[in-house]
Amino acid sequence: MSMRRRTLLGFGAAAATGVGMSLLGSSAAAGALSPRMASPRQAPTAQFAIGVRQFFWSRGNRQLNTKIFYPAAGTAGGNPIPNAPIANGVFPIAEWSHGMGCNSDCYSSQTHDLAAAGFICPAPSFSDNTNIGSVYNGNWSKDVSEVLTRTLALNSTTGDPFAGHMDTRVGVGVSGHSMGGMTTHGLLTAWPDNRIAAAVPVACVDMGNPAGLHANVLFIHGDHDPTCDYNSARAAYAELPSPKAFLTHVGADHGQYLTPDYRYYAQTKNTFLDWFRWSLYGDTAARDRLRSDATSNGTSWQAALT
Fold it and tell me: Which stretch is the leader sequence (predicted)?
């Protein structure tokens, strides 16, 4: 993709609108997993309680304060419980990247939904969370790769509560909104991470040419987004091979469809979760639900799943 095709963003005060306070939100990593399509199995159908652990990692001089939300033992519902025992089972990893001016707590609807559905969700707080340049120079994408490496290492750390509870056979999922969505797309293009088996860039712009990763990619975007150009995301979608899909919220702005009180939030939530259930659990029933998940009077759906 030439620089003429890339939509460069100028996030000024007028652009710092969306969900919450503001949701504007490398080379393939060493020791990478070799992702393959998950062996078909049913993803968990019951909701889990949610646990959360906090880690203070770094990459060079960049701080990577990260909360990991995860399925916890106990009764489903309620707020995340710090350091709760992890639920019985082996769970895939599905990461979330926040947008401008935010941190790992800004998108609780997404991170908590992932954990309750049976995913381990690392959510880094980027140290320069208003610096669009750090997205365009790859620092945020490289930060995510480092967070994935640190998270995966816990699976084989003797005595760690996560040891043996991570499904490391199928690769990982990545997702995020706005600057976090651009970060996610960057991990498929300019700074690829070959551990990625599934990605959901939300309200992103085209960050470069596809790197040839074998990943299932779902785009989610509002077609009246004043901040991240919808047509740029459409161009990014067109460049990728299948499996891929595009959920458009018709008439929606930059992020209103990520909030539970939005009329068509169910289409966001169900499509988002079933994409990861299919991609990381190999749940073919989740794949077969995608069209109905996404369909409403306020959305449109395009997919090439084979």
Answer: 1-31
> DSSP string covering 67-88, please?
EEEEEESS-S-SSPEETPPBPS
237 — alpha (psi -120 to 50), left (phi > 0) or beta? alpha
pLDDT digits (tens, 9 = 90+) for 47-93: 999 999 999 999 999 999 999 999 999 999 999 999 999 999 999 99
Nearest to 247 by CA among 197, 291, 192, 282: 291
C-alpha 280/C-alpha 166 separation (Å) is: 12
The one-letter amino acid at 113: D
Q: Which residues contact 81 (CB under 8 A, 6 or more apart)?
A: 49, 50, 51, 52, 72, 74
Single out the residue of 57, 17, 61, 49 nearest to residue 203, CA to CA.
Answer: 17
Rounded-to-integer distance, Cα 217 and Cα 116, Å = 22
Q: Is the dihedral of CA 224, 245, 185, 278 positive or negative?
A: positive
CA–CA gap between residue 148 and residue 261 (Å, rounded): 31
Angle at 15 between CA 9 and CA 16, to 5 degrees: 120
Other C-beta atoms lying within 10 Å of the C-beta of residue 76:
12
**Tell me, what DSSP letter sits at residue 56?**
E
3-state helix, strand, coil in the chain (%, to 5): 25, 25, 50
